Amino acid sequence: MKRIILFLLTNFAVMVVLSISVRLLGLDRFLTANGLNLGALLAFSMFVGFAGSIFSLLISKWMAKFSTGAHVIETPQTADEQWLVSTVRRHAEKAGIGMPEVAIYEGEPNAFATGAFRDSSLVAVSTGLLGSMTREEVDAVLGHEIAHVANGDMVTLTLIQGVVNTFVIFFSRVAGYLVDKVVFKTERGVGPGYYITSIVCEIVFGILASMIVAWFSRYREFRADAGSAALMGSPRPMIAALRRLGGVEAGELPKAIKAFGITDKAGFMALFSSHPPIEARIAALEGGRK
User: Fold this and answer.
1) HSE-up of 100 (CA within 13 Å, CB side)?
2) Is residue 72 pLDDT above 50, yes or no?
3) H-type helices in 25-126, by residue range?
4) pLDDT single digits (tens) 190-214
5) Which of 129, 96, 133 is nearest to 110 (CA)?
6) Cβ atoms within 10 A of the Cβ of 155, count?
């Protein structure tokens, strides 16, 4: 219920901000006079902006299993599987969430959590992670993933993605309409200026939006690390796990769930990385950062 209310409030806030913005800029009178229905454009932008991100969230568990080949542990067959399931259950109970599905997939060291609902999520670890870490370190990594679920990070990241998508779609089309009418002097309907400008602005605004989403993704990693420390009763195991990850080649996750892993390759620009540098995460844990 809390997340439904958050979703509704977020939608309302987006509408208010966009409406105030176009009025302050005086665009509403000009655009309306030239035939652009701002209300319809706003509704279209919100539908397109949120629909894709919400649909991705709803199918995130299925996509994660399909893309990684993760095997869900229905009935533990080995001592390691029994330990893995019981450890996830212990963290879930302590965090106050429903028992997630637990899965293992073949790959280099990494782990992730995903799912649309905090009481029906998925936590998966790679064989590389299980083979390269001690049980205490794996325990801490599982605590990190459970903290993501307990914090509602999947839903929050989806809402943020939906908001920025709405802004990108709305303002790119407003810019396209303005350029088409003011620069290209199109009198009836829309001309090439609208389509060219809309496409260019959507690319530029989309890059800026990705930076915003990536910033939040990095912030929530610090919170999940702190959540692991709270579940473990000490930051020491999570620090050890991060140091271990810093010394191995992390496994690449599919793009759809990359932001929900334990680590990530930084890429060519830190501003677009979904995870902070491991050194910064260790420093935050050692400094008691939340």
Assistant:
1) 32
2) yes
3) 27-33, 38-58, 60-68, 79-95
4) 888 989 999 999 999 999 988 888 8
5) 129
6) 21
Catalytic positions, written as ranges: 145
Please report, as a single letter, which amino acid is at residue 79. Answer: A
- Amino acid identity at 157: L
Integer-rounded Cα Rg, in Å, for the chain is 22
Dig out the tokens for 265 from the structure.
């390759």
Tokens of 125: 């670890």
Residue 192, amino acid: P
Contact 45, 169 (CB under 8 A): yes
The amino acid occupying position 265 is K
| pLDDT tens-digit readout, 233-244 | 999 999 999 998
Give the number of residues written for the chain.
Answer: 290
Q: Is the pLDDT of residue 26 over 90?
A: no
Most confident of 35-49, 212-226, 238-252: 212-226
